[in-house]
Design a protein that fits this description.
The structure holds two protein chains of two kinds.
Chain A: H1 22-30, H2 35-61, H3 70-76, H4 83-86, H5 89-94, H6 102-120, H7 127-146, H8 162-188, H9 193-208, H10 211-225, H11 234-259, H12 263-271, H13 276-306, H14 318-327, H15 335-364
Chain B: E1 10-21, E2 24-35, E3 39-43, H1 50-57, E4 65-70, E5 73-74, H2 79-88, E6 89-92, H3 104-114, H4 120-133, H5 149-161, E7 167-171, H6 179-194, E8 198-202, H7 206-212, E9 215-220, E10 223-228, H8 230-235, H9 240-250
Parallel strand pairs in B: 3-8, 3-9, 6-7, 7-8
Antiparallel strand pairs in B: 1-2, 1-4, 4-5, 9-10
């Protein structure tokens, strides 16, 4: 081959040498590139095998999915005793929401996906029409969950709990904190001293105080600051605190994005005669938000997981329910199963958020398509 | 290059203008008149204030003393006046400054739609017409990051022209380009000059100056040292600093 000669400019495109590309090439380069590497590969595969077999046995094959108590579980098999979860699944999902009314939560839950779809997927067909639904969804959700209108019985907040409570606090906090965070970030960059100072003070205060402190304030002190006669329920107060807390973080993340935009972008926008709001809407925010996606989603995931902190002020989030379940003498000592279950719920939700953000980043990447 | 059709009404008038960056005096006592349809090339060593001068004309930089009058409107802090002037004065930058998150077409239609209130359909037609004029209509739906430097700069020119400006400012439009792409941008600018557009061009492309300019300005250390028609400017420079500068850029 190498003896062949070509005229200048007529050298053909040759395929890469065999064994450097494809599955075979990958395996050879990554797993068996040297003797020690090959030994390590074999050792790791063996270890992984035993680990996976053990996990599958405990989680599924030797596990008990239904029984009346821990003792009964142990009599049947020696794996995980999921009965503690399956027997109390209603509480884990709905808290103490009355059983006959739980369909209201189910409807709200599925409607939530329809409401979010047009916001999350800009290319969705009939998007304009669906956005109307997104707009009225908050009202719909409030009416359904809270009740008290249209013949729906009113359900007291202290009956809310479980994953439903996590979703109510988490989703409301996330949805409300993004626009507030954007306004704070813009305010912090404002040329008006009053606006800027207010935003800086708010952001620094919210970031400088532990969330638990804010939650205690929400549960005990906030009503002192409110005008007499107003009485927000504890849940609303908690949601406000979560929103403000994460809005402060979002604001800083977005500020980072705004500052990463090259100066030339503003100059070009100025030179074209765009005014401040046009510049913000068409040039600054789209680019800043795109840069900030990883940081924003990071904050959202943090907020979502922090909702478990409400247990300290007596709200029954999934961890509160878990604690209550474990206090039952029938299920005493099954903390591993209960906490793994709760962890799994959070893991799946957070994974969905992080995957979505990756997808969005890819979609918005306009550099090399 | 003699052109008799130029009207004598100045569209830009700068009177004894000064500018400081902090305590650094960047522009000193600049006076300049630009008539309708006139093409002026500004050259000079780096740091001489030539970019700052044209950036003062659309108030990307704020001058501290003297007057700048564009289209009979004096440049002040008044936002309404400023936005009106900016939509009449197009600018092309050294680093293109296209909006990377918008397609080429959207780059061109954004300002006409939102600043001038043009209907989307008309703005799109106008943009396609101008993209055809800079010879890249087929790239309209791509994003700036997918184009070569020369193509990006031509889009930037088209974007400015979409506002149908009366004056075009060019701030070293070819300095960031690979050598083989400079020509396509200069050709576009020459064609634009032939349409009678008023142009102020900061550039080191002396060939362009000889071919197109009505008048060449040499700046050094914040002052206008010499202004002359290209023939006299290149063949018979009066000032020693001009002579030195010309010998440095022409003989290599």
């Amino acid at each position: 081959m190498s003896l062949e000669t070509y005229k200048p400019g007529s050298y053909p495109n040759l395929p890469p040498p065999i064994g450097t590309v494809g599955v075979y090439g990958w395996v050879r380069n990554n797993l068996f590139s040297s003797l020690s590497n090959s030994l390590l590969t074999i050792l790791s595969v063996t270890l992984l095998y035993y680990l996976i077999v053990g996990i599958v046995d405990w989680f599924l094959l030797d596990a008990v999915f239904d029984a009346n108590s821990k003792i009964e579980c142990r009599k049947i098999d020696d794996g995980a005793c999921w009965a503690v979860v399956s027997r109390r699944i209603g509480q884990f999902v709905y808290g103490f929401y009355p059983e006959v009314e739980r369909w209201r939560i189910d409807i709200t839950f599925f409607a939530m996906f329809i409401a979010f779809a047009p916001l999350l997927y800009p290319d969705l067909p009939k998007r304009k029409f669906l956005l109307w639904f997104s707009g009225i969804f908050p009202i719909l959700a409030y009416l359904l969950i809270n009740g008290g209108y249209f013949g729906l019985s009113k359900i007291e907040y202290n009956l809310f709990g479980g994953f439903m409570l996590t979703l109510i606090i988490g989703v409301t906090g996330i949805v409300c904190s993004l626009p507030i965070g954007i306004l704070l970030a813009l305010g912090r960059q404002s040329k008006l001293t009053v606006v800027r100072t207010l935003c800086v003070c708010f952001i620094e205060f919210m970031r400088g105080v532990p969330l638990i402190t804010l939650l205690f304030v929400a549960s005990s002190m906030l009503n002192y600051f409110m005008p007499p006669g107003t009485n927000f329920s504890i849940l609303v107060r908690v949601i406000i605190m979560f929103t403000f807390f994460s809005a402060a973080y979002i604001a800083e993340v977005i500020r980072g994005g705004i500052q990463a935009i090259p100066k030339g972008q503003y100059e070009a926008a100025d030179a074209l005669g765009l005014n401040y709001w046009q510049k913000t809407r068409f040039i600054t925010l789209p680019q800043a938000m795109k840069i900030s996606i990883p940081g924003i989603v990071n904050t959202f995931i943090g907020l979502y997981k922090d909702t478990t902190l409400v247990v300290v002020i007596g709200l029954l989030d999934p961890l509160g329910i878990a604690r209550a379940s474990l206090a039952d003498t029938k299920w005493n000592g099954l903390s591993i199963e209960v906490y793994i279950f709760v962890a799994l719920f959070f893991f799946v939700s957070c994974l969905a958020m992080s995957r979505y953000s990756l997808w969005l980043e890819n979609k918005l990447n306009t550099d090399h398509k | 290059m003699v052109n008799n059709k130029k009207s004598s009404k100045p569209v830009i008038e700068i009177k004894e203008m000064h500018k400081w960056f902090g305590s650094f005096h960047v522009l000193k006592n600049i006076s300049l008149k630009v008539n309708q349809g006139e093409r002026i090339v500004i050259c000079g060593p780096s740091g001489s204030g030539k970019s700052t001068l044209i950036r003062c004309i659309n108030r990307l930089e704020v001058h501290q003393k003297g007057d700048i009058i564009v289209n009979d409107t004096e440049l002040t802090g008044d936002l309404k006046n400023l936005e009106a002037i900016r939509s009449d004065v197009g600018m092309v930058f050294q680093s293109f400054n296209l909006f990377p998150h918008l397609s080429v077409l959207e780059n061109c239609t954004l300002a006409p739609i939102w600043v001038k209130g043009l209907p989307k359909k008309e703005a799109t037609e106008l943009a396609m017409e101008l993209l055809t004029r800079v010879k890249i209509p087929e790239q309209a739906l791509k994003f700036p990051g997918q184009l070569s430097g020369g193509q990006q700069q031509r889009v930037a020119i088209a974007r400015s022209l979409c506002m149908q400006p009366k004056i075009m400012l060019f701030d070293e439009p070819t300095s960031a380009l690979d050598p083989e792409m400079i020509k396509e941008v200069l050709d576009t600018m020459i064609e634009l000059a032939e349409t009678g557009m008023t142009m102020l061009v900061v550039t080191h492309e002396m060939g362009f100056a000889k071919k197109v300019a009505d008048s060449v300005i040499f700046m050094d250390e914040g002052e206008i040292i010499e202004q002359n028609d290209p023939n006299n400017f290149f063949n018979n420079p009066k000032n020693d600093r001009t002579k030195l500068f010309l010998s440095q850029i022409l003989n290599h």
